[in-house]
Amino acid sequence: MDPSAPGKRMSQSQHTDPIIGQKFGNVVAQSILGRGGMGAVYLGYHPGLDMKVAIKLLPDLFVGKREMVERFLREARVSGRLQHANIVRTLDVGQDHGVYYLVMEYVEGVDAQRLLDKEGRFSPMRAVNIAGFVARALGEAHEQGIMHRDVKPANILIARDGKVKVTDFGLARSITNTAAALTLSNQVVGTPNYMAPEQIKSMDVDARVDIYALGMTFWQFITGRLPFDGPTPMAVLLNVVNETLEMPDEFFKPLPKELREAIVAMTAKDPRRRLPNIAAVLAVLKKARDALRAAGLDSTAPMGGAARSSSPAVKDPTSGFNPRGTTMATQFQLPTDSAGYTKPLGAPPRKPPAK
Predict the structure, then answer these.
(1) What top-level class would CATH report for the domain 110-342?
(2) Considering the entire predicted model, what is its pTM?
(3) Among all residues, which ones are annotated catalytic?
(4) Which DSSP string do the residues of 44-81 spell out, in sequence order?
(5) Is 3.40.50.10420 the CATH classification of the domain at 21-105?
(6) Residue 213: exposure state from Cβ atoms within 10 A (0-12, 13-18, ≥19)
């Protein structure tokens, strides 16, 4: 029996969850996938489309709070506008059983944070490849006038076929209408370790906050460490503002200088000295990738050895499938007809259609 089909045998813990078996729109909730600050996520089944989907539910304690409901609905509106191979699609939004819900594309795989927890850190080429796909997703969002504002490994999904997708635009806001952005009263919004200094200082921000967060995420891919860690969120925020991002020799000395230079350019504390746009990010990532290949560092295998099937390969975003680019024990063949994979890494993002 297909484990995603209705009527599958549920564990005792699943039976105690009142959401299991409930219908939201046309979708039946089947099992819990995870819980976070902005709601629980369930695996669902859409009988009409005969496909698995993810259902995100707004927590009950937020339903009466206008700001939280607005943010939740805004995520639906933002995600619905973004149609890109490297962005998780939104399929539906509504309210049922007194609960706000969001139906999204279900990505069978694991988020990059869990992969890091399992593997320790990524090979440099694998880190560059993932960062390239995330940059493409952010480029699409920026072209639509949208900042993500919470780029981090936990919001980067790696599917079993190796496809990379960015999710959770719940903190997104308009680049062109920052004055209308929703924030929690007297709180900075985002994840401290990845927040740009100007975001922490509540200054006017633009798409460069996403570039900063991607640079921090890239650094974490290479080192396996949290950037600017600290014992409390406030300590982390102070470190982000006041401390210099280190480039430990144990990780960066064996690597081409182009990789280190890419991270430095993406994470400058002064946004005026930071890479200005995603086209520039793609260009420096391409240089880093080319330098890694020239140095013979083109393996995308986990640092500890050959990967298991639960650790998907990430295809080089700059070319067709290249077996030399990975030494994985289990290799997933990737689709070749998606613009998200065939567009050259150094190419600038598409221009938005004329209005």
Answers:
(1) mainly alpha
(2) 0.78
(3) 150
(4) EEETTTTEEEEEEE--HHHHT-HHHHHHHHHHHHHHHH
(5) no
(6) buried
